[in-house]
Design a protein that fits this description.
The structure is a homodimer. The first copy, chain A, is an alpha+beta fold. Chain A has 3 domains: 220 residues, Bira Bifunctional Protein, Domain 2 (BirA Bifunctional Protein, domain 2); 101 residues, Rossmann fold (3-Layer(aba) Sandwich); 70 residues, C-terminal domain of ProRS (Translation Initiation Factor IF3). In chain A, helix 2 crosses helix 6. Chains A and B meet through strand 2, helix 2, strand 3, strand 4 and helix 3 of A and strand 2, helix 2, strand 3, strand 4 and helix 3 of B. Strand 5 of chain A pairs antiparallel with strand 5 of chain B, so a sheet runs across the interface.
Chain lengths: 490, 490
């Protein structure tokens, strides 16, 4: 590290960008809007994938794979869906290059123009529901519970690593059901899976709720979402689950014969989370020294750094440490013993701090004589010298403690930054300071749009579990049935 | 199943196509040349991915992710590489659709034309070596050992499920080294990983060797490959590992300072296997009754079917079977207890046979009384009634035996279909019958091309381990240093 990171309090945005780069998580590629996910960042994403995939399978879903390309005519079939995505579509028009007859290099071969343009999938409802037509005939074929891990492309003019990129990685679940009730139940079940994943793995407390009509997925009847609060007081939508009704079944003519032997359109859901979660993970927990990773998603959970002056000292330390490394591995701890002599301990400490390794042990000859080891926690930046005996079990317990502490810290932050506000003047003041604002809203898109135009705040969600406390709209003064959550957002 | 599969002996190609469809492995999509990988097929691919990924990590590689799009100018930088892929490139020329002003639907927005066209990656050397320029400065940064799991697109006019599709899934390793020797060692190491995977997981014996100049990867100095023999006597290239020399480092100006403090271009390798392996797996082992899966890649390794007339009987059987299911799971066996009453046992048997489940148990009331169970092996289609006591350990041993047997069967088939041929007349006769032909070749591209033109046979590989027995070219009569392997191929 040449110098420290920018401070969150001074320039949050710059702090984020620098942190992503310096911790080797990702970088901008030479391809406009696309990122390179570097090995350390990808290792975290792999851990997220594994945990989510296990949860999807435990709830009865299977993985499959559908084509990258969506014929333009498929996208057009569901009108709202088409309108929603038309402006951000990468379009394949040709299928061949040829040598430039007038000079060097290659040109697009004009003779290889496609009859119908292909869209690089921005999402796969169209191509999947076109396929489901062949898979669904009878109620016996339902429910159809499928997930896909894939890359998608939505053309973006302004991009930020992980948060908004032209290409991103995600999973998209696409299910078909015999009844509306079952489909809604599935939509809510998967929202629950996302919330559990966010809280138990990412240590990220989330609110669950419904989007307003303005913020719904293009083609959905209802969009459910989870929302998290970042340290700068902005909200980040971390996952969505859509009840699609019969819209796609009608557009792609997917009918099944129900138990009464009558043809009926199938009911649909879709749900997804993406590499955007990496952005949420980074922004929710990290500090001015670098990343803070919840142990359950940390590629390296514990690093052990020997402090030594001679090869002989190192050999003595290693002899004591090697069995501890093996024992930690057998306990399921991902551990690294860093005896590399290219770098000094101080450099290593700073590097592991930057990369968010939850627990760092340092051990020198004096420790060895005393039977002790220095244990540093990344989350609190505290150090403690403790007995080496039984260190393995202490580390396992400490990792659990850190996981819980990171969650509690984020929860306390959110609670301290959630405000019930009943006057428009207060609203305007608070929104500048950030946080979630719980306020009454009259339920109209018009009011929602005016609030957005005046303050850049959007309705993040209409809470699912709430006191149905009635009141008057913070903006219009018209009657309101419940508070909704406003914030500025990523 | 409405009726049986076509027979291999009558129409091998039709047998393959029908098998892929009926066993629910994959289907053609409405997008020309692209396939849908169905859940059962994808479950096999996931098992392959997991095993390969573990092997890559055990040999020191890390995963990362690079952009889907390659700017045309990047592709042009390595000339041979560009020429090799130009004819099969899907080209993105626009980034937006808009409402059709003259009618319904969407049109490509002419105002959203890209300044530079983007190619959907056919392979990622160009985009990755452009990135490596920023990652490699010193010998300390080497070796760089990276793998990517991704989709790629190579426009194909004639496609076959798994074997040749416009879009396919694969992994591509891309490594950078300080010396030529290290890079060659890596190329050979990864070839070895592929061979081990093919033999130990896919139960597929493979030959290892070098491609002739004509068959090399576009941009490589040497291409190593593994080749397997299918049941129709055609060869299938199952994986390639390329030594790229300094070609890409020079094209993308990737230099490092070596230990002597001198700037030097980095040495490269790349290596990949794809969903084509699914085709090899299916074609190597399956029979006229359906799929035959090696147990290590079977999504369901053992199915248990209860035979019963009443709910009471089923309850009695289930009470005995449930602990066996649990015990099998704890032994790491993927097991399914199929008590579904929608289908009759006979239908289930045929279905699991079609899907290649390695071991099937059937148990009725009389078995229960006798303390026995009927065990059917998918590989030999044999049945045996054995004691129920200790059945779990017997199944574990049986799965190992089946894995070994499938491999031995494929090996025996290859050995019976490998011929040393020394006369051109015999060559022409044998090639019509299929198999690997070991013959002398004079080493010229001209002879290679003539043989191909006359017989459709190509040099599959120049064996790595071979008696350096000299002789005369089977076609030209010119001197030859060693035999090479010819075959018709997929």
């Amino acid at each position: 590290m040449s110098k420290g990171l920018p401070k969150r309090s001074e320039n949050y945005s710059e702090w984020y960008n620098e942190l992503v780069k310096r911790a080797d998580l990702a970088e901008h590629s030479a391809v406009k809007g696309c990122m390179v996910i570097k090995p350390y960042g990808y290792a975290i994403w792999e851990k997220m994938q594994r945990a989510l995939d296990d949860m999807f399978k435990a709830t009865g879903h299977q993985n499959a794979y559908f084509p990258l390309f969506v014929p333009k005519s498929f996208l057009e079939k569901e009108e709202e869906h088409a309108e929603g995505f038309a402006k951000e579509c990468a379009v394949v028009t040709h299928y061949r290059l040829k040598k430039n007859p007038d000079g060097a290099g290659l040109i697009v071969d004009p003779d290889a123009k496609l009859e119908e343009e292909l869209i690089v999938r921005p999402t796969s409802e169209a191509v999947i529901w076109n396929t489901y037509k062949g898979w669904i005939q009878s109620w016996r074929d339902l429910p159809l519970l499928i997930n896909q891990w894939a890359n998608v492309v939505r053309w973006e003019m302004r991009t930020r690593l992980f948060l908004r990129t032209t290409e991103f990685l995600w999973q998209e679940g696409h299910t078909a059901h015999a009844t509306s009730e079952e489909a809604i139940e599935e939509t809510e079940r998967m929202l629950g899976v996302y919330a559990t994943f966010a809280e138990e793995w990412m240590a990220l407390p989330v609110l669950k709720g419904l989007k307003s009509a303005n913020e719904r997925f293009a083609g959905a009847i209802e969009t459910y979402c989870i929302e998290a609060l970042m340290q700068d007081g902005k909200a980040l939508q971390s996952g969505t689950s859509h009840f699609l009704g019969q819209n796609f079944a009608k557009s792609f003519d997917v009918k099944f014969v129900n138990k009464d032997n009558q043809p009926e359109y199938a009911w649909a859901t879709s749900w997804g989370v993406s590499t955007r979660l990496m952005g949420a993970l980074i922004m929710a927990h990290s500090d001015d020294n670098g990343l803070v990773l919840p142990p359950r998603l940390a590629p390296v959970q514990t690093v052990i750094v020997p402090i030594y002056r001679s090869e002989e000292d190192l050999a003595v330390i290693s002899e004591r440490i090697n069995p501890i490394v093996e024992r930690l591995k057998s306990l399921g701890v991902s551990v690294k013993y860093d005896a590399d002599d290219k770098y000094k301990p101080g450099y290593k400490f700073a590097e592991y701090e930057l990369r968010g390794v939850p627990v760092r042990l340092a051990i020198g000859m004096r420790d060895l004589e005393n039977g002790t080891v220095e244990v540093a926690r990344r989350d609190t930046l505290s150090k403690e010298t403790i007995a080496l005996d039984g260190i393995e079990e202490k580390i396992v317990a400490l990792l659990d403690e850190i996981q819980a502490n990171i969650y509690q810290k984020a929860l306390a932050f959110r609670e301290a930054n959630t405000f019930q506000i009943d006057s428009w003047d207060e609203f305007k003041v608070q929104i500048e300071k950030g946080g979630f604002i719980e306020a009454h809203w009259d339920g109209t898109s018009e009011t929602e749009e005016r609030i957005k135009a005046e303050t850049k705040a959007t309705i993040r969600l209409i809470p699912l579990e709430t006191n149905q406390e009635s009141g008057t709209c913070v903006y219009s003064g018209a009657p309101s049935k419940q508070r909704v959550v406003f914030a500025r957002s990523y």
